[in-house]
Amino acid sequence: MHVKNVKSALDAIRNPLKAAILSRFFKTGKGEYGEGDIFLGIVVPEQRKIAKRFPGLPLNEVLKLLKSPIHECRLTALFILIYQYQKGGAEIKKVIFRVYLKNLKFVNNWDLVDLSAPKIIGDFLLQNPAQRKILYKLAKSKNLWERRVAMLSTFAFIRVEQFTDAFSIAKILLRDKHDLIHKAVGWMLREIGKIDQKIEEKFLREHFKQMPRTMLRYAIEKFVDKDPFKKL
Question: What does the CA dihedral 163, 133, 84, 151 come to, rounded to 10 degrees?
């Protein structure tokens, strides 16, 4: 089983019209966050189906796929890594966690981060909390995607009502300049609020004056009464 088999499967269902739409949607123009990314025009459900056809792809071949300049190749590689992580034992999980961190430069768009970081980085650190300091290092990175990985990884903690790290990383990112970080932080705060709105409100009352509007808007999206936040 080789990477060329996966690439052939993807190439067989490429859609040039959809590719043009996705290229605009993911901001691939000069100076935009996805500058230079290449799309085949394949929707996520189809990529998942292809990934499931190659669950046993050797790790070195998965990494070749992850290093592709083609967006769908990278996302499909991440889906394969997730399947292998979820089915693997403790040692396999550790290897995939380390491989993911080592190759973060290829996890370089928001969908790649959002669909993989909670399931690999988040899950591993949920089981190995002593290693969570890596998230704080990523949160202070100059790289946009590493900062988003830090925030999105806490989704795994939030789902089991562990909010401390999510709040701590949100504080680090409160004054971040990028809209995609504002959205990520607001989203995770909103997820906390779905479980415990009072604890989210407490955090917001302490920090809402420092938050970018987009971050706050995302955080209070599910609130029935948005006062005093809506008056900002």
Answer: 50
What is the distance, to the nearest Å, from the Cα of residue 132 to the centroid of all Cα atoms in its chain? 16
Q: Do 113 and 191 sit in the same domain of this protein?
A: yes
Q: Where are the beta strands (DSSP E) in the chain?
A: none
- DSSP bridge partners of 181: none
Out of 59, 87, 115, a domain closes at: 87
Are 81 and 127 part of one and the same domain?
no
pLDDT in tens, the chain (232 residues): 789 999 999 999 999 999 999 999 999 999 999 999 999 999 999 999 999 999 999 999 999 999 999 999 999 999 999 999 999 999 999 999 999 999 999 999 999 999 999 999 999 999 999 999 999 999 999 999 999 999 999 999 999 999 999 999 999 999 999 999 999 999 999 999 999 999 999 999 999 989 999 999 999 988 876 666 665 4
Find tokens 């909010």 and name the residue: 163
CA 36 – CA 142 distance, rounded (Å): 20
81 plus 119 within the same structural domain: no
Full-model pTM: 0.94
| Listed residue (12, 10, 95, 112) closest to 60, CA to CA | 95
Distance CA 192, CA 52 (A): 31
Q: Distance (Å, rounded) from C-alpha 94 to C-alpha 85?
A: 9
For 144-169, b/e burial (b = at least 16 CB within 10 A) is: bbbbbbbbbbbbbbbeeeebebbbeb
